[in-house]
Amino acid sequence: MAINLEKGQRISLEKSNGSKLQNICVGINWGAIEKKGLFGIGGSKEAVDLDGSCALFNANKQLEEVVYFGNLKSKNGSVKHSGDDLTGDMGGDDGIDNEVITLDLSKLNESTTYVAFVLNSFRGHDFGKIPFASIRIYEGTPTRVNEVFAKYDIANGPGFAGHVSMVMGVFYKRNGEWKFNAIGEPTKDKKLQETVNTVMQQYL
Question: What number does CATH give the domain 3-34+44-203?
């Protein structure tokens, strides 16, 4: 049963049978921009480079580590990035995530209290100009979806146009239990470091 959160909702990560969720995936799927030719004849595709990233923080909201296209795995292996997709789907939506970040909550350092997922448009392509761009945060593996927590349609969602950065959501630990906050908010940031700073200041 998919949970499909609205942005701003918070959920516990305990299943109905009492067991705890452990393996989380954040999948991002997007398309290249279609550019029409002169007088609408012909045309071409412009590659779009979106970057999903994961930032880990301790209880004092201090940054511990960032997993992104330049650092594909956290030191203890709890977070892994599938690798940088530089183009998006050039031939239309194939339904397959272009980038996937996996999180194993059981492997996180004891000190890690917040795990934030953010998205940046590397070349500054406006989210509103990308033909399709969807994000899903789910339990499972890169090849198997068990239960979806949150979905965002940033190409068509109100408020994303004019932005090149967003905070997808934050997993946070309270009294030893992991919970999830589906944020889904665009930010005014241009670069990953700026977006991580915004998370630190506003969303932890």
Answer: 2.60.60.30
Residues 77, 64: Cα–Cα separation, whole Å: 14
Counting beta carbons within 10 angstroms of the beta carbon of residue 135, is it exposed (0 to 12), middle (13 to 18) or buried (19 or more)?
Answer: buried
- Long-range contact list for 107-110, CB < 8 A, 24+ apart? 107/76, 107/77, 107/78, 108/56, 108/76, 108/78, 109/56, 109/64, 109/76, 109/78
**SS3 for 107?**
helix
Task: List the chain domain ranges.
Answer: 3-34+44-203
Those residues of the chain that have pLDDT short of 50 are 1-2
Residue 130: CB partners within 8 Å, gap ≥ 6? 30, 31, 33, 48, 50, 88, 154, 155
Instruction: Check if the beta carbon of residue 153 is closer than 8 Å to that of residue 136.
Output: no
pLDDT recorded at residue 2: 45
pTM for the full model?
0.90
> Using CA atoms, how far apart are residues 139 and 26, in angstroms rounded to an integer?
9
Rounded to an integer, what is the distance from CA 65 to the centroid of its chain? 16
Q: Quick one: CA torsion of 96, 147, 120, 66, rounded to 10 degrees?
A: -120
